[in-house]
Amino acid sequence: MFRLQGSKVLAVDMTGDAVKAKNGSMVAYDGRMDFKKLTGGGEGIRGMVTRRITGEQMTLMEVKGHGTCWFADRASEINLVDLRGDKLFVESSNLLATDSGLRTGTSFTGLRGASQGNGLFTTTVEGHGQAAIMSEGPAVVLRVSGQYPLTVDPGAYVAHQGNLRQSFQSGVTFRTFLGEGGGEAFQIRFEGDGIVYVQPSERNSIAGDV
After folding, report:
1. Whether residue 163 has pLDDT greater than 50
2. Where are the domains of the chain?
């Protein structure tokens, strides 16, 4: 159902089914399509209230019909993620689309969310189906194992999945070496078994500076 045309455009072939996508990300379609704005990131009133309280911003639309719809957002690179009953944790600004077999929600992330000004929650996607996530520049998929934990700069973090534990450690961020850091800084440490998606460009936020 999901396929890439190049690295920056998502094509979704539909036969009467639906897809949830970032509001305003449709760039073209053929056939017959209906568009509906979803409140609360598609989670209804409860989701809308939760996201408003936490500051986690995600506005989605539902696209349903017969034909092909193409999605893109600011020429961002797109990665396809196959979920088989597991859960994907992703920054809301990096989520482009999910198919109808997946549920979106929110999850507590603690310090990282608060320091970035995005509240204390991040977006979750779970179930069976495909999701499309975006990154500034080609995403790098890094493996985490029991023998090899991974440390990530918060501004470069995009998403993660698998049996991973997050912790936050104070100290030097990668930006500090360039003289761009200020105040107390932190990094995200992942331990366990899973994968982490990072981007080669840091989002515009205070990120690792507390």
Report:
1. yes
2. 2-198
Q: How far apart are CA 97 and CA 3, in angstroms?
A: 12
pLDDT tens sequence across 80-119: 999 999 999 998 889 999 998 899 888 876 544 444 443 3
Q: Are 194 and 161 in contact (CB under 8 A)?
A: yes
Closest Cα to residue 158, out of 82, 100, 98, 79? 79
DSSP H helices, 55-208, are 111-115
Q: Write phi, then psi, for 201 (nearest 5 degrees).
A: -145, 135
Say which amino acid occupies 53: I
The CATH number fitting domain 2-198, selected from 3.60.160.10, 3.30.200.20, 3.40.1160.10, 2.40.128.120: 3.60.160.10
Whether the CA torsion 42, 44, 50, 53 is positive or negative: it is: positive
Q: What angle do CA 80, 86, 90 make, to 5 degrees?
A: 55
Say what percent of the chain tops pLDDT 70.
73
Q: How far apart are CA 31 and CA 35, in angstroms?
A: 13
CA distance linking residue 111 with residue 208, whole number of Å:
10
